[in-house]
Write a structure and sequence with these properties.
mainly alpha, three-stranded mixed beta sheet, two-stranded antiparallel sheet, 9 helices, 11% strand
Length: 220
Amino acid sequence: MPFSPLRILLLFAAVVVLIIVIQFGVVSVAFEKLGLSNHSAYLLLMGTLAGSMINLPLFSLRSDSTAAPPIPPELSRLPFFRQAPFTGKTTIVVNVGGALVPLAFSFYLMGHYPLSPFQIAAAVGVVAAVSHAVSRPIPGVGIGMPMFIAPIAAALMAILLSPEERAPLAYIGGSLGVLIGADLVRLKDLKHLGAPIASIGGAGSFDGIFITGFVAVLLA
């Protein structure tokens, strides 16, 4: 979705709502499980929101489609959704807020909690397999998947593998599992969709990879 004033307005409204929610201690419960102070939680959330406006191009794939297919009706009705012109190529981009921030925070958690490589690999592997199984290519758009299946899988694996450190393991498994299973493994499918741009990390603010890790922590 290209830049639009309405998208900026929606992100600003999300910031206001998040600040209010954190003040009431709802969201802070999840970050307390991860050992973050309110100040650190603010920084992480603001970094995610700011990063959601930044897509870094990686490479282009020549599409098998000669024209972009129709946009799904549920997306075309959104006032801020605008599809970029299709030129016969799909540009693969990585969203800073939706992919790089959760990735960096996952590595931070790995370095600050006593999680074994086996626990991390098992949690990430199972969530990646589940994410790949439930994700679907959406013609003209990219890869989509149900929002809560991956967080539930990440929370269950974290509780099973490491009850003491289940919160950080749930975040790591949820974030990296979706990144691998729903985005990276499905890169080969993108050339068949006729999408002008495909973003690793989704729209970046609170869907896709970031919200998967966040919800997984709440469930763990």
